[in-house]
Amino acid sequence: MKMFIWLRSLPWALAAIAIASALAAAGPDPIKVGVIVPMSGPFASIGGEITAGIKTYIKQHGDTVAGRKIEIIVKDTTGPSPEIAKRLAQDLVVRDKVEFLAGFGLTPEALAVAPVATEAKTPMVIMNAATSIITTKSPYIARLSFTLPQVAGPMATWAAKNGVRQVYTLVSDYGPGVDAETEFKRTFTAAGGKIAGSIRVPLQNPDFSPYVQRIKDANPQAVFVFVPAGQQGTAFMKAFAERGVAQAGVKVIATGDLTEDHQLDAIGDAALGIITTHHYSAAHDSPENKAFLAAFREANGDAMRANFMAVGGYDGMAAIYEVVRKLNGKIDADRAMEVLKGLKLASPRGALVVDPETRDPIQTVYVRRVERVDGHLYNVEFDKFANVKDPGK
Ligand code: PHB
Fold first, then answer.
1. How far apart are CA 46 and CA 60, in angstroms?
2. Centre of ligand 1 from the C-alpha of residue 105, in Å
């Protein structure tokens, strides 16, 4: 009888052993990274670039760190959509049990998710969103991109030093635009410059024509511009050309969001000569950038040109890999933040260090001029400001 029971349970025992060994062969669970970005809607190019940068990093460095596979879960906010971003973050944390939240192309979405990171104790890696205040909203946020004050201040300093006396400002009417306007005005007027006027345009579908006409009528020496990366740069420059403002002698100066690499060829010749300040240009001459651009093409094909958001995605992944490596695959949020504070990267943009105090990058801000190189338009670096911290806090 005993023998009979033993024989009957034998297949089950064998099956259990087979399952256990299959699990052992598969290794520990993957580390899930929840990436929250707009992949559709008016800012789809932001999500497209960030995820292309993530893909590039994984292609170049493999998908396993400290014995744990890295699994990327991309969620589309269709944004700007803070409510959707928050709900997606809650789902990722509760249901998918992600160990990192990442992405964040748009400031309102990053701000909406900050309390989720705090409550769930999940490290949140910002790959673009650039309003200064974001990192103050949760101790679990680290930013691998830039801030608007960090690049707008150097633009004002450069302009004041190079004979620009009077500037009109035009920015998108939300966090990064307000930050850019505030820091530009502060630095420019402190250096003796005058502000001829200021316009804030809606974030959603702005019609630039009437604003551009107002600037033409005011006839300033230059206009300082921040619009979010993507199609708005092309739309602004189209209105600027159609209204004949360049011919009237008004120069464009901007943060590099206006002339970002993916849009530049779409803007076309109207962009030639525009001077901008930013942390990344595809024309940056370094071995790290050459390797990045080659890997980007290999991972994503030729249709998309890598821009600063792709680099934000790439460097954000580098930061996540470093945390996983240093913590030997066992992620604890507080220990993760200790790794992120002071983290140094040899980025395609140049060296960067995450400020241990603010969790924002300290980096070089380059002054660039749009030129044609080998048949394409590029932001060619010709001056720089070293070790720039976010001046916004
Ligand atoms: C942002 O929403 O923080 C943002 C979006 C696009 C940019 C820069 C900042 O080019």
1. 21
2. 6
